[in-house]
Design brief:
about 260 residues; alpha+beta; 8 helices; five-stranded mixed beta sheet; elongated
Length: about 260
């Protein structure tokens, strides 16, 4: 972002240099250019101020749902540490280059052990495993609830049509056609569904803060999500009401008037 990254000149015996991330730059030097500033780091030689030679972007080291922490990078040539991570950018399937990368490392030193070789997708997938499981579990329960709601609406509308058979017969005898009856019954089901959607939306808005830990870069009150769910529920209610409504539209007036 600013300055430079480490180079071969940042090695043992050279003036100590560090690279900081944007979070550190904002916290330590909010109104200044940090490149060229001196920073004391509690690592290696804590009494020797290090020169900030560059600023890099933020990295989520722990998980995707937490904001990046301020970070400082130190050249491994100046302050060698223990185990290191080697990251390789590839074109295509990274698994096909595993042996080639290992061969290059062993050509430098055959005693270097290599372990825990993973792709970035695998690291990201592992970091979101728990939220993904919870979301799948909640999604399964939500799908079951949706199915139960559809069955319930179907049963309620069917029962209502059966109870109003004589009324429907009278309407047909007085001139109401099948489309009028269809609209009448569908309107009843959609009114019930609309009331349920309004009550459910109000309840969801009240408890969305409990879902905040399962979301990543999505607000608990995301308007698109709420609108999509309401549309799906409305469609399910319409489909569940259509069958009994169509059945009611085909009622024979004479049969309906004799119905007990």
């Amino acid at each position: 972002m600013r300055g430079r990254v480490f180079s071969d000149r940042d090695r043992a015996g050279a003036p100590p240099a560090v690279v900081i991330n944007q979070a550190s730059a904002r916290r330590l030097y909010p109104q200044e250019n940090p490149v060229g500033k001196r920073l004391t780091v509690q690592w290696g030689h804590p009494d020797v101020p290090c020169e900030i030679v560059g600023v890099v972007g933020n990295v989520r080291q722990k998980s995707l749902d937490k904001d990046p922490n301020p970070g400082v990078y130190i050249s491994n040539l100046q302050e060698p540490s223990g185990p290191v991570n080697l990251v390789v950018r590839t074109h295509g399937d990274p698994r096909q280059l595993t042996n080639a990368v290992q061969s290059v490392v062993h050509s430098l030193d055959r005693e270097i052990p290599i372990s825990d070789v993973k792709t970035m997708d695998e690291y990201v997938s592992a970091s979101v495993a728990a939220p993904r499981f919870n979301t799948i579990l909640l999604g399964g329960f939500a799908g079951l609830a949706l199915a139960l709601a559809a069955v319930g609406i179907f049963g309620v509308i069917s029962c209502s049509v059966a109870q109003r058979t004589q009324e429907i017969g009278i309407r047909r005898a007085l001139g109401a056609d099948g489309r009028n009856i269809l609209r009448l019954v569908l309107a009843q089901g959609l009114r019930l569904a609309g009331l349920g959607i309004l009550l459910g939306t109000a309840g969801a808005l009240a408890v969305t803060r409990l879902l905040a830990t399962l979301l990543y870069e999505v607000t608990p009150t995301d308007a698109v999500t709420f609108a999509s769910v309401a549309a799906v529920l409305g469609g399910v209610a319409c489909a569940a009401s259509y069958v009994p409504a169509r059945r009611a539209a085909r009622v024979d007036p004479m049969v309906a008037l004799r119905y007990e």
